[in-house]
TrEMBL record:
Disordered: annotated span: 1-38
Natural source organism: Hemiselmis tepida
Superkingdom of origin organism: Eukaryota
UniProt name for this protein: Heterokaryon incompatibility domain-containing protein
């Protein structure tokens, strides 16, 4: 899981000139809580985001020679901004992506719709972590991870990946993006943990940032006819090592609730990052605990809204 050496998010969540608003499902604006600072000003909610969700088109990824950080990706025009997310049929979501250009009449073009099934959320262990943000990178010098992503992502699909989609040089904005992780995850139907080789899965599971993203993917959405069994099959491990001889299907393994670890025992390049993760971990523990208690109740009614 990324952000391994990115700028440190401090309590200065509302620096002068920094717009703290975000969007929620349906295109509304998620305002910070008044009178609060830091993470407390941006309470976690899978249906709200406080920093825009950005996606990288597959046809852009195909042309990359190296994964760029978020600020560089913005400058180069690689990112598409999500306008809004709405519930679709069944468990799918409808995502509207903003058009960058304008029409022949000079007016802004309407957002175009894609399905969440077209979006990969790539969770991964940074291969070149460093306390210096300018030296840290999620890939190795051989671009092993980028090659693996290209083998998965077709030109017509989209990806969310922390290094390109979360601010790496702006602590207040990064804080808001971290508080938006549940929203980003639940707007992406294809949660994919990138691992490399035989020990790759265990290395992934031992990283605190990876666990945070995995846990975010397991937070239950409050919706009618909730069926907790869905929670146990959401997400896949994907082996991107080269020369393993594995076929496409053999590289896949489901991510289950049993893969969640005690984050306080997991590794961090910078121990201070645990305070960034604490709100997400505590929120997920409450939500999962409530869901488990409800699911274990002998007189539960699965036609009512979970937890309400």
């Amino acid at each position: 899981g990324g952000h391994e050496s990115s700028a440190h998010a401090t309590a200065a969540g509302e620096e002068k000139g920094d717009d703290p608003t975000g969007t929620d499902e349906g295109g509304g604006v998620a305002e910070p809580e008044p009178g609060l600072s830091g993470a407390a000003a941006f309470p976690l909610n899978p249906k709200k985001c406080y920093f825009p969700m950005y996606l990288v088109p597959g046809n852009v990824v195909a042309k990359l020679s190296r994964l760029p950080h978020h600020e560089e990706a913005l400058r180069q025009g690689y990112l598409l901004e999500v306008d809004r997310v709405e519930e679709g049929m069944y468990s799918n979501k409808r995502i509207w992506v903003k058009h960058k250009g304008r029409g022949a009449d000079g007016k802004k073009m309407p957002s175009r719709e894609i399905s969440d099934t077209m979006v990969y959320f790539f969770s991964h262990r940074w291969m070149t972590p460093n306390l210096d943000p300018s030296l840290a990178h999620p890939d190795d010098e051989a671009n092993t991870k980028l090659r693996g992503i290209k083998s998965i992502l077709s030109p017509k699909k989209y990806m969310w990946i922390d290094f390109m989609c979360i601010p790496q040089r702006d602590p207040p904005s990064q804080l808001r993006a971290i508080q938006s992780l549940p929203f980003y995850v639940h707007a992406s139907a294809r949660f994919t943990a990138l691992v490399s080789g035989e020990g790759g899965k265990e290395e992934y599971l031992q990283r605190a940032w990876c666990q945070a993203e995995l846990i975010a993917s397991k937070i239950p959405l409050r919706m009618p006819r909730w069926h907790p069994a869905w929670l146990h099959t959401r997400g896949m491990f994907r082996d991107i090592s080269s020369g393993s001889g594995l076929g496409k299907e053999a590289r896949l393994e489901p991510i289950r609730l049993g893969h969640i670890r005690d984050v306080s025992t997991c590794r961090l390049t910078d121990p201070r990052d645990f305070e960034k993760l604490r709100p997400l971990i505590e929120f997920a523990a409450r939500e999962l605990g409530e869901m488990a208690a409800w699911d274990a109740s002998p007189d539960r009614d699965k036609t009512r809204v979970f937890g309400r």
